[in-house]
């Protein structure tokens, strides 16, 4: 009730939610009854959960921020939602996002932008700005996001929250409306590292419905966060800093906060090691070929027949499809579909998609040689603090550069965490520090994140 009251109080300004559940109180009361009956419930039983609208739910519409899916009701729950319900979490509502998770500011939502609770004239990050804003504004204690190139970590950075992109395959993508299937991962957005660990424990692990799901038995990430909390893990920890990411690429307050965190870690026994990752700088370029290519294929299913909107002004089936997609998709989605189909077309495939895949391999090799020398890599989570709504909306290339430091993890499939590192001196806005670990070493991120927190 406190969270629903908070939503009623602030969400007309913040606009984190696209839909608020009318079943949350009933579900919570049901949990209370089960608890009273002596049923052993998990640590998160009864805790409200905000769900990014990219994740399908049976009891609330799932639009992925698009008009083409307005009012769409899924016949099944995403695996992560089903697992959350089974653990007794209470879905509170669906959060706003850039359309089909394409963007860094939530301004590409077909339902209007979300506002950053720290300053309502600023962006909450994207694509999962709704989930991050809901958590930052105390409208929800926990949220789910999805991260294809930074959509969990960059919103966490600009809202002073914690966001985790798990190892690729660590969390099921079943029921996550696909953006780019080889990059997408679902993960937690919370106010503390321990909260993320608790939620990750609930949603993670093998799912036979996702063909890329890893069969690993994962350690408890909550336990890792609790282990890390006393800071001991920092003693002798080798922290890699990438030489090819000079301070000049970051807003001064972001760079200063990053160095303050490194100094703090060093003071507690960590060793800062310079490493080279020469191909990181090509990550954004490779990503903006691979992502549109995969997205153009994934979005082909919105054909006016199987899901959502149909605009029928007569003519052939193709005319109906074209009219539907023209009316249902926003500018950014159209831009990427055109880019993706072009990159995949005969005669250009090798030059664009093929080259991008080679760069992807080189970035994976950069990570492999870096992790032979260090335990974790640290970077600022994004180049700037929250910018003003409208500031970058007409400049797609500027928007794309927000993901400079987050994209490599998606291209390589490694896990990443963004935790708050302080406020930028020049504007008083939150800044995040990102840690990256080798694939399957998500627990290391929880230890280190909790130590620094
Ligand atoms: N901002 C990036 C993009 O626009 C990341 C999106 C995401 O992670 N879903 O593609």
Automatic annotation (TrEMBL):
One of its GO terms (cellular component) is glutamyl-tRNA(Gln) amidotransferase complex. It is an enzyme of class 6 (ligase). It catalyses: L-glutamyl-tRNA(Gln) + L-glutamine + ATP + H2O = L-glutaminyl-tRNA(Gln) + L-glutamate + ADP + phosphate + H(+). Keywords: ATP-binding, Ligase, Nucleotide-binding, Protein biosynthesis, Transferase. InterPro entries: Amidase (IPR000120), Amidase_CS (IPR020556), Amidase_dom (IPR023631), AS_sf (IPR036928), GatA (IPR004412). Pfam families: Amidase. GO terms for molecular function: ATP binding; glutaminyl-tRNA synthase (glutamine-hydrolyzing) activity; transferase activity. Its EC number is 6.3.5.7. PANTHER family: GLUTAMYL-TRNA(GLN) AMIDOTRANSFERASE SUBUNIT A, TRANSAMIDASE. Allows the formation of correctly charged Gln-tRNA(Gln) through the transamidation of misacylated Glu-tRNA(Gln) in organisms which lack glutaminyl-tRNA synthetase. The reaction takes place in the presence of glutamine and ATP through an activated gamma-phospho-Glu-tRNA(Gln). Heterotrimer of A, B and C subunits. This is Glutamyl-tRNA(Gln) amidotransferase subunit A. The lineage of its organism: Bacteria, Bacillati, Actinomycetota, Actinomycetes, Micrococcales.
């Amino acid at each position: 009730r406190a969270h629903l009251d908070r939503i009623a109080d602030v969400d007309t300004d913040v606009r984190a939610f696209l839909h608020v559940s009318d079943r949350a109180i009933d579900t919570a009361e049901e949990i209370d009854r089960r608890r009273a009956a002596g049923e052993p419930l998990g640590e998160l039983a009864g805790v409200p959960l905000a769900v990014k609208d990219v994740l399908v739910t049976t009891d609330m519409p799932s639009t992925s921020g698009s008009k083409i899916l307005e009012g769409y009701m899924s016949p099944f729950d995403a695996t992560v939602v089903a697992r959350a319900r089974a653990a007794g979490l209470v879905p509170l509502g669906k959060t706003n996002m850039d359309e089909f998770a394409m963007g860094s500011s939530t301004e590409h939502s077909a339902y209007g932008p979300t506002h950053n609770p720290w300053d309502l004239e600023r962006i909450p990050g994207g694509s999962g700005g709704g989930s991050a804003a809901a958590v930052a504004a105390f409208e929800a204690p926990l949220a789910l996001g999805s991260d294809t190139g930074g959509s969990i970590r960059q919103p966490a950075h600009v809202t002073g929250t914690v966001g985790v992109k798990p190892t690729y395959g660590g969390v099921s993508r079943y029921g996550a409306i696909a953006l780019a299937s080889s990059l997408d991962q679902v993960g937690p957005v919370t106010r503390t590292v321990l909260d993320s660990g608790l939620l990750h424990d609930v949603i993670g692990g093998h799912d036979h419905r996702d063909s890329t799901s890893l069969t690993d038995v994962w350690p408890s990430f909550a336990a890792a966060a609790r282990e890390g909390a006393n800071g001991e893990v920092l003693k002798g920890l080798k922290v890699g800093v990438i030489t090819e990411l000079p301070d000049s690429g970051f807003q001064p307050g972001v760079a200063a906060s990053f160095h303050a965190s490194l100094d703090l870690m060093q003071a507690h026994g960590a060793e800062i090691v310079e490493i080279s990752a020469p191909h990181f700088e090509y990550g954004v370029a490779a990503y903006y070929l691979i992502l549109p290519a995969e997205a153009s294929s994934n979005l082909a299913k919105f054909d006016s027949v199987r899901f959502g909107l149909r605009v029928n002004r007569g003519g052939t089936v193709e005319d109906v499809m074209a009219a539907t997609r023209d009316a249902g998709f926003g500018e950014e989605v159209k831009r990427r579909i055109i880019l993706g189909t072009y990159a995949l077309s005969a005669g250009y495939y090798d030059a664009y998609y093929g080259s991008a895949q080679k760069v992807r391999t080189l970035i994976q090799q950069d990570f492999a040689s870096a992790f032979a020398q260090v335990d974790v890599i640290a970077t600022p989570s994004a180049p700037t603090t929250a910018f003003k709504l409208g500031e970058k909306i007409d400049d797609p290339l500027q928007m794309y550069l927000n993901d400079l430091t987050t994209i490599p993890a998606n291209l390589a499939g490694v896990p990443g965490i963004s935790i708050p590192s302080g406020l930028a001196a020049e504007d008083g806005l939150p800044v995040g520090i990102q840690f990256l670990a080798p694939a399957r070493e998500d627990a290391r991120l929880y230890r280190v994140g909790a130590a620094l927190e």
